[in-house]
Amino acid sequence: MKRLFAAKALIVACALVVLAGCGSGGGTSGGSGGGAAAGAPVHGGNLVIANNADAQSMNNIDTFDNDSIWIFEQIFQPLFTVTNNGKGVMPWLATGYTMSANKLTYTIALRHGVRFSTGAPMTSADVKFSLDQAKAATKGWGYIDTAIKSVDAPSRYTVLIHLKYPWAPLLADLSLFANDVLPANYGGKTQAQFYNDPVGTGPFKWDYWHKGQAIKLLKNPYYWQPGKPYLNSVTFTDVPNDNTRMLQLKGGQAQIDSFPAWSTVASLKSTPGITMDLFNSTQTNYLAFNELRKPFQDVHVRRAISLAINRAALVKAVLFGNGKPANSLFPPQVPYYQPSTAGLQYNLAAAKKEMAASSVPNGFTTSILVPAGNSDYVTIATILQSELKPLGIKLNIVQLDPNTVNNDEQTLKYDMVLTLWTMDIPDPDELATFAVDPNSGARSFFTAYNNPTVVKDTHLAEQTTNPATRQSLYNYVQAQSARDAFMAFLYYSPYPYATTSNVHGFFVTPLGNFHLENVWLSK
């Protein structure tokens, strides 16, 4: 999960040097409440984060939703983590690495003294097991490790990763949550048993999950960073209604409101006792088309809809100006983003021509899935309803429980659905494969899109370390996927989080993740 620069040069610099000039991965600067300015951190307290949807699973290998990912990242940890600026990686459970001359073997040095929340020490056997499990996954994120030939554990604190071929994004891929380190053999449990009571090296450990209500994590007494975490516990509540989350924040029942409605951002900024942050983001919002359902196999229909969407009006009406229209599958903060890719921008005359050339020139009736309680998505759907009328398209808005919407999207039980992406690694490898390869485990962002040339160039870009070649390949992927209109790229926006003023050290990286070990509550 970013940027406009000579992208590969910075990624390589951060990956090879790892620490030099790449920023801090877990610092408290820039967090809500002023960080160090609020005084020295204090221990204790129970943080409540009101989320707009419940988690789907604690399985880090095959889970796709952010509500799950950002929770289990507090339990599980990777060998390398993303820097605060979202542009590189730094050692985390590893302390460093060396690469062979032929770029096919990485020797990873593990951090000494790391223990799981059970008190058991973390060793190379745990890392090997975890990477082997992730690599073998037939759905979900297994594709991220396709370049890994084998993993060896020659000594307690050394891991060897052997590659099939040179792989540009390896260190970035190792920072992905799917490659987090778990206990070998799931600590003697079956996989299902383990994920019902997960164990990791993170700052917090499992307490309970009351599905549809809350997930609670407790302080890990064996955490490897001295003095952290500061909090006694963190509870993530399932509160899909925007207004309810805001009222809970103002009433003190929650200390963090995840993704408050954009219509409330201005008022929250001026509310006493509340800090309203807009964190730099790699979030892109899309309108996805299910190509397994008619008439969305027809590229003319998809282009017509995409061309009928006034993205500037969406930014104004939904984001209240806090964002900009999207032109590419990639967000601007991602390496190899191509600003000159035009995408399909608003042009009603061109949209009508595409419909005239389609299999349904007189229009059709279809539906869009919207999570109930999400006022921003309801607004978008209502605007789309109006914008598609001139094309003869009748759009029915179907509001369902957010968890049902997630499931229906991932099982392709929809016509159209509003969806979004936030990067998880500082390289386009993850997003490009997830989005355009129907065999990636995500079926091309759950759209069933399949353009063999786009798929081929996506994988060629992973296997070259030449920045110019990667840029050229990704330029084609961005331009052609836009022409194919497998999704309508809507807009880019920051991450909105509202917190009570006694929350300190809360910081969200451009990839959307956060280090809750740094968060503390003033009395």
* Count of discrete alpha- or pi-helical segments spanning 4 or more residues: 16
- Main sheet makeup: 11 strands, mixed
Assigned CATH superfamily of the domain at 281-494: Dipeptide-binding Protein, Domain 3
Which secondary-structure class do the elements indicate?
alpha+beta
Quaternary form: single chain
Mean pLDDT: 91
Question: What layout of secondary structure does this protein have?
Answer:
Layout: H1 7-17, E1 46-51, H2 66-72, E2 80-82, E3 89-91, E4 94-99, E5 105-110, H3 124-136, E6 148-155, E7 158-163, H4 170-174, H5 191-196, E8 204-210, E9 214-219, E10 233-238, H6 242-251, E11 256-258, H7 265-269, E12 274-289, H8 299-307, H9 311-318, E13 324-325, H10 348-356, E14 364-371, H11 375-388, E15 393-400, H12 402-410, E16 416-421, H13 429-436, H14 443-448, H15 452-462, H16 467-484, E17 487-500, E18 503-504, E19 520-521
Parallel strand pairs: 1-10, 1-11, 14-15, 14-16
Antiparallel strand pairs: 2-3, 4-5, 5-7, 6-7, 8-9, 9-10, 11-17, 12-16, 12-17, 13-17, 18-19
